[in-house]
Structures are given as structure tokens and as C-alpha cells.
Amino acid sequence: MKKYHSWLAGLLAVQVVLAGSLFWYKEQATPDATNEPLLSFEPAAIDKLVIADADSSVILQKSGDQWQLPALHNLPAVDQKVPELLNKLKDAKVRWPVATTASSHERFEVDEEKFQRRVEVFAGDKKMGEVLLGTSPGFRKVHVRRPDDNEIYAVNLNTFDMPVADTEWLDKTLLGAKDLKNIKGPDYELQKTEDQWNLAGSATEAIDTENVKVDAQKAQELANALSNLRIVDVAEQQPKGEPVVISVSTDTGELQYEFLKSEGDYFVKRNDQSQVFTLSQFDYDRITQIRQPQLAVKAEEQKADADKEKTNG
Length: 313
What we know:
Layout: H1 2-29, E1 36-37, E2 48-52, E3 57-63, E4 66-69, E5 75-76, H2 81-91, E6 93-94, E7 117-123, E8 126-133, E9 142-145, E10 153-155, H3 166-169, E11 182-184, E12 189-193, E13 196-199, E14 212-214, H4 216-227, E15 231-234, E16 244-250, E17 253-262, E18 265-270, E19 277-279, H5 281-288, H6 292-295, E20 296-298, H7 299-312
Antiparallel strand pairs: 1-6, 2-3, 2-7, 3-4, 4-5, 7-8, 8-9, 9-10, 11-12, 11-16, 12-13, 14-20, 15-19, 16-17, 17-18, 18-19
């Protein structure tokens, strides 16, 4: 009986070794079993990216170190959004094809006529890569096919990262003014000295500046609203009306904003941009509704509030 058990154990060991050898041989001998780049290019060399679906497309062009939108007045794209996508495309690997016949292209929506995304990358006039993206087999995975072969693969990509509308790539923070030193509104002027905002300019002539100080919180909220200003889109036409003008000074120079409400929509223009942009009512209100009475507070009231906070703290 012991000899029989030993024989069975030996047979099992031979089977395990044989199975392992066959698996190793298959891994080494089958080209599809090794990770292979979906596309071969160097992201730093790419200066043009074209993304399309069945109905529309977007072109992103690199100028210097900045990616721009040629169809949208060469406005800047979101910083790092294009480089991040290029890195994802470069890092995508293919392994086992899920289908290998031309008849399967339409079913996985990677056909020349039926696809969810077509992505092309260029270095100058030379196309460095192209891929068709289709259906999704799972979270952050998508079926892909290179136009020059029939194999379809599932790779770690997401069509959500590849919108085809220019405004989805547009840097919505392009009008934000950083490092503000001075803010001048319709009836007020604020000057920042070190980290403290103070009332300044001709608007203080009618104020007893000895007893009236700036509301530090309100002044900082206004500065934050201008620094974090977000546009929504490029306006389709020039709005009509009398704008609220606000001028600011930064480390890099002077800027002038014109805010305007027209027919229920909200607009903003800055003197260094030729385009007019739309913005939300929230951003419009928190900047344009501020006046001097809201920024000024009596010194004794300010001191009382500070003492109260100290006591509560």
C-alpha cells in the first residue's frame, strides 16, 4: 500500500511539474501573452492631440509649454490634463485579445464607422499613433483597436477622460487674479499691506478712518472670490448693458474686470482677453454686490467682536 501511495505522489509531482512547464512555455512562446504597449510614442514629443466621436471632435495644440484650443480662440486648456492623458495612453498595455476578427469590430464599437472615440497623436505633421475606443467591459476599462489590425483588447483607459467638447478642456480658472495687492470697486478701494487689508484711496475721504476700519473677513472673501473666479464658457455674443468695473493690482501688473448681467445671464470680461465669458450667478453676486458699507466696520464693533471670539475660544 505504501508503494502505491508513493507511486501516486510521484505521479502527482510529475503532473505539477509538467503543467508548470507547459504554462511557462505558453507564456514565453505566445506573443500575445506578454505586455505590449498599445501605442509607442514619447509624450514629450507630442504637440497635437485630436479626439473625436461620431459627431464632433476637439483639437489640442501645444504652444511652448502650454496646451491650447485652436477652435476656441487659442485659449488655454486645463493645466496637466493633456499630459496626463498622453501618459495614460503611453502606459496602456495590451495582453490577450478579446476578439480577432473584422466582424467583431462593430459589436465592440471599434469599427471605422462605429466607435466611441478616435484618438490621434502627432509630433509636427507626423502621426505617432492612433487608436479606436469602444465599449467598456468594466470600471475604468475600455475595448480598443488599432486601425491597422483586427485584434481588440481590453485596456485600462476611460473615455470619460477624453471629452470631445472644447469647453470640457478649457481652463475655467484663466481669469483668476492671484496675489492681489489692491482692489478698487464702484465706491471702495482696498490696499493690502503685508497680510492686512485696509481702506484706501479717495473713497476714504468721507469716512472717519480713525474709527472705521475694514472688515477683514469681508475683504478677504472678496479677494478670494477674485482669485478663485471660474468662468463657465465663452460668450456667443457681446452682452449689452452697464458693467460693474473692478480693477485689481497683482505682482504681475494691473487688471480690469467688467461684470455684466444681461437677460438673466452673467458675463465677465478682463482687459487682457479679447473674449467675453459667462459665469455663474454665485460668482457674479459675491463680487459685484460688495460695496463700501459692507467692507467698513466701526473700530469699537470690530474690537468687541475680537474680544468675543477670544472669550469663546
